[in-house]
Amino acid sequence: MPDLAVADILKRVRRIQIVANRAVNALFAGQYKSVFRGRGMEFDEVREYQPGDDIRTIDWNVTARTGSCFIKRFCEERELTVLFLVDVSASGVFGSAGRSKLDLVVEVAALLMFSALKNNDKVGLLTFCDDVLDYYPPRKGKSHVLHLIRELVGQRPVARETHLQAALDFLNHVQKRRAVVFLVSDFIGPSARRALAVTKSRHDVTAISVADPREQALPDVGFITLQDAETGEVVEVDTRHPGVRALFQSRAAARRETFQSELKRVGVDELPIDTRGDYVASLRRFFQMREKRFR
């Protein structure tokens, strides 16, 4: 992703804002609230006891003072802290469908940020590669969300290997209270299963895995030159050979299977998106899956 002028960044942010707001208003306003829950229950009011009420909710102080039996009522504490951990490594510049993986990341993150904004939640952002690059603590408000989106749009990809553990360790250090965490990456890099398990024990974590179809299968187009965006390594590949294409596909499938197995072992939900797919439809399926589980 090349450097963008300030005017170009603002123009793109405005376009993303319009698209995200439309999607939030049309599709996700109610679903977001129903699938991401607050930290617990908070006191609401007291009322007189009615037959069938749970006796464990009796407020004995009020009952003794008034001479009538009263119970405490509680409601769910709705205010959430929503944190986005976004991988900005150079592998994100790849895209074979007219947009890069990083472009897709920004659009999806913006949609979820505006969903959080609509529900008056706090939103924070952490960008990382081999280490944490920038951290913006959770805050409320439209201006703050737009600032985070501008930072993502103007982010320069980093040509270093991704290390999820550094980002997760930092999060676990700075965010003590339970939060909703979106971990956004193509997950090309070393495993961080142990750090992810610790984060999952403290927070509601969703892994948003970003992919491009050309990372799963090679087309038959003859000799091609491939370069690793993070290490700079260059290799020549003869895609005419069926064995080469089969090996590439099998290794990609194995990486995918290993990744999904690790998420399952630590109990983290996955939201898969790709540069050629409809991410709005993917988000809708994800919300429906979470709603079904809660019911």
What does this structure look like?
Helices cover 44% and strands 23% of the residues. The chain is elongated, with a radius of gyration of 23 Å. The chain is of the alpha/beta class and 295 residues long. The model has no long low-confidence stretch (mean pLDDT 84). Strand 4 (122-128) and strand 5 (132-139) form a beta hairpin. It has a 6-stranded mixed β-sheet, sandwiched between helices. Strands 1-2 form a two-stranded antiparallel sheet. A two-stranded antiparallel ribbon has the order 8-9. The protein is built from 8 helices and 10 strands. The protein has helices spanning 6-35, 60-66, 101-118, 142-153, 164-174, 193-202, 242-266, 279-294, and strands at 41-48, 70-76, 81-87, 122-128, 132-139, 180-185, 204-211, 223-227, 234-238, 269-274. The longest helix is centred in the first third of the chain and has 30 residues, at 6-35.
Shape category: elongated
Percent of residues in helical segments?
40-55%
Let me know the number of strands. Answer: 10
Helix-strand pattern: HEHEEHEEHHEHEEEHEH
Rg over C-alpha atoms, rounded to the nearest angstrom: 23 Å
* Strand percent estimate: 15-25%
Order of strands in the sheet with the most strands?
5-4-3-6-7-10
Structural class: alpha/beta
Distance between the termini: 42 Å
Reported for the largest beta sheet, the result is:
6 strands, mixed
Oligomer: single chain
Low-confidence stretches: none
Mean pLDDT: 84
Number of helices: 8
